[in-house]
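Section handout, structural biology tutorial.
Before the tutorial, make sure you can parse a SMILES string by hand: atoms, branches in parentheses, ring closures as digits. In the record below the ligand is zinc ion, and the chain has 201 residues. In the tutorial you will relate the predicted structure tokens back to the input. Do not try to memorize them.
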Amino acid sequence: MDTIKIGLFIKSLRKEKSLTQREVAEQLNVSEKTISKWETGKGFPEISLMLPLCKIFGISMNELLSGERLSEDQYIEKAEENITSLVKDKTTPRTKVVISTISCILAMLSSLAIIFIAAFSATQIWLRLVMIGIALIIMISNVSVILLVAVSTEIYECDKCGEKFTPTLSAYLLAPHTFNKRYLKCPCCGKKSWNKSHIRK
Ligand SMILES: [Zn+2]
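Predicted structure of the complex:
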């Protein structure tokens, strides 16, 4: 995330609304210094303050994180970028899983919406097929993101020797599994067993 760019954006929005740093600070219940830190890129609004800040300036969270106003066609692209950088910035793997799941659900819903529009609109058949194609690509790419995050977050404990390991993506995908166990071959003792999954700390 480019905090300098976001800071300049916040500043220009504030000027646009002809508000002082103090007035914005008062509305958000933070100190004037905090606002000045944001505007100079030395700090960044914490999650609980982002929405109220967006409300004051009449922008979306996506625009705040991008540090600029977005046109409709930039919107999805930027949202993906922002979600990716949030995932990178956040420390706990648990948060990664939550964020990637949310982004996946959002992408699924938008893909379904596209398919729905394609199915019922009166446009030409090729255009509908293109729309369905795009929707499917969005879905597939999101499922793969989810899988990659899951693989990088989960570790498995060998039932035979107790060794902890991370399976390869293909082993992970092909293995039979329950909610918290996966049938994998242990790289340490080489035996196959039902291994318990743990979230990497
Ligand atoms: Zn083992």
